[in-house]
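Researcher: Let's do a round of design. I'm pasting the structure tokens now; please hold your answer until I've finished.
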């Protein structure tokens, strides 16, 4: 792992009188899978949206590859955006398009491919996300939850991003599908050299996939480091989260009973 590919400095986000983030700092290291965790409403999604330029912070700075997305001229901003893939919480696929058309869309719109070329590449992304070719002709509403996540992942990978952002990718999946998604993520990271930022409540995903974890709370990053480092932090929420029954079960599933 080399330097920080994402630097968040002094981030402040407010909605009316509600302060969600205040002087929040975070680094994401190239090649890592970083898990973002924290209680409901701690601002994980708002942080993700701030990083990808969907939400303009009230103060502070987000630098991606040393550049501030929000101050770049449009063409440069678009170029930087193409280096990021995003899987939103509900998949956010267009319901009136087939899965293949959903994946091909960014290739037509942002990479300037014709429909035939985009379709051929979309087929490859579909396979990369572990979906059978037949799924390409189906509409999102006819897919299982796990397949929707994979279709959304295929679309997020359409433009060969270097950073992948995932907002609760395993939410709503049964444990077997969630574990399969975790394995797919690790395979893709290793094969494609991706950097991954992952918002999750899923302790199994954290233990199975993440190199580091950042815990949001009290408007900041309360702790960041390896799972072992973060789990050892003296903080009430972290203690309950990592050392409660679910945390113990997730840790044992990966490490056995050695602790
Ligand atoms: N567009 C908005 N307008 C007003 N308030 C917002 C908006 N977006 C987020 N918030 C508020 O900001 C806070 C943080 O929201 P966010 O969705 O980032 O939390 P989260 O940590 O992702 O929560 P969860 O784990 O429940 O998904 C919440 O109190 C939310 O109501």
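Researcher: That's everything. Go ahead.
Model: Designed sequence:
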């Amino acid at each position: 792992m080399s330097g920080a590919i994402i630097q968040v400095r002094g981030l402040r986000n407010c909605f009316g009188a509600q302060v969600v983030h205040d002087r929040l700092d975070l680094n994401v290291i190239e090649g890592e899978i970083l898990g973002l965790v924290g209680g409901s409403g701690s601002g994980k999604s708002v942080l993700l949206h701030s990083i990808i330029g969907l939400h303009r912070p009230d103060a502070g700075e987000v630098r991606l590859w040393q550049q501030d997305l929000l101050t770049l001229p449009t063409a440069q901003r678009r170029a930087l955006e193409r280096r990021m893939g995003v899987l939103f919480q509900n998949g956010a696929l267009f319901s009136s398009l087939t899965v293949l058309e959903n994946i091909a869309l960014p290739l037509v719109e942002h990479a300037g491919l014709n429909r035939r070329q985009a379709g051929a590449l979309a087929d490859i992304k579909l396979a990369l996300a572990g979906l059978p070719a037949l799924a390409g002709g189906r509409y999102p509403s006819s897919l299982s939850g796990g397949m929707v996540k994979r279709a959304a992942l295929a679309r997020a990978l359409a433009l060969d991003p270097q950073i992948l952002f995932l907002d609760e990718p395993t939410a709503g999946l049964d444990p077997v599908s969630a574990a399969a998604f975790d394995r797919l993520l690790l395979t893709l990271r290793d094969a494609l050299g991706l950097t991954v930022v992952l918002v999750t409540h899923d302790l199994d995903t954290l233990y199975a996939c993440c190199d580091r974890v950042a815990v949001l709370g009290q408007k900041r990053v309360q702790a960041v480091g390896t799972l072992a480092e973060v789990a050892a932090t003296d903080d009430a929420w972290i203690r309950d989260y990592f050392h409660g029954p679910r945390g113990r079960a997730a840790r044992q599933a990966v490490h056995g009973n050695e602790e």
